[in-house]
Amino acid sequence: MILEACVDSVESALAAQAGGAHRIELCEDLLEGGTTPSAGMIEVCRERLQIPVHVLIRPRGGDFVYSDIEIEVMQRDIALARRLGAKGVVYGALRADGSVDVERTKALLGVSRPLSVTFHRAFDFTPDADAALDTLIALGIDRVLTSGQAPTAVEGTRTLARLVTRGAGRIRILAGGGLTEENIAKVVASTGVPEVHVRATALLESPASYRPRHLSLLKQPLPNEFDRAVTDPERIRRLSGILGKIDSAHP
């Protein structure tokens, strides 16, 4: 059994290793579901850890339907992770209809080897798990991270077990989503998954003694996880125009 810990800091990576994790998935911004970590974080983790580091390659939060520019960014992040010593990369790309984006996944695979490749939980947002798994097998993906297309792996055990059987010898199923000390043994026993993915966090209180209660940098949640906030050129133009008028009035 492989225990993979999902972490978003060097401290958490070291803690996962100390606790007996066999591998880490290194991310940033887990409140968005995870995005690509910085080069500095990857490099320090590689210097401090003895267990393999798999790097999440996700240029933004929101959906998994990527533009050509975003794929270019992801390709460069993959190349950087490889140069910095990562053992694997984790990504997923879908079409608008929810099916696996074969062409864009091939584009990412083209710069990924010899790294291990995991297709992440974008898999859980596909309409047909069996068809998606067959596509990933045909592409040569090494493993898929999935909750069995359910809110948690506990609720997705039936699908997870079916995927393990369907992918046997061709792709590894990495079960993740709400796994805890109380349920992990049951999920493994009922599905036969060879790998599990956990967060296993504890709340760490900030050492900051001065805390201005009237300020917060936390953003308001979006209406749903598919939509995302993007820069509006018209709003930028209006703001620029306002500042231009101020400059003209006060030369």
What does this entry look like structurally?
With 251 residues, the protein is an alpha/beta fold. The protein has one domain: TIM Barrel. Helices cover 36% and strands 14% of the residues. It has an eight-stranded parallel barrel with strand order 1-2-3-4-5-6-7-8, surrounded by five helices. α5 links the parallel β5 and β6. α5 packs parallel to α6. The longest helix has 17 residues. The protein is globular and about 70 Å long. The protein starts with a strand and ends with a helix. The mean pLDDT is 93.
Topology:
Blueprint: E1 2-7, H1 10-19, E2 23-26, H2 39-48, E3 53-56, H3 68-83, E4 88-91, H4 102-109, E5 116-119, H5 129-139, E6 143-146, H6 157-167, E7 172-176, H7 184-191, E8 195-198, H8 233-249
Parallel strand pairs: 1-2, 1-8, 2-3, 3-4, 4-5, 5-6, 6-7, 7-8
Helix pairs in contact: 5-6
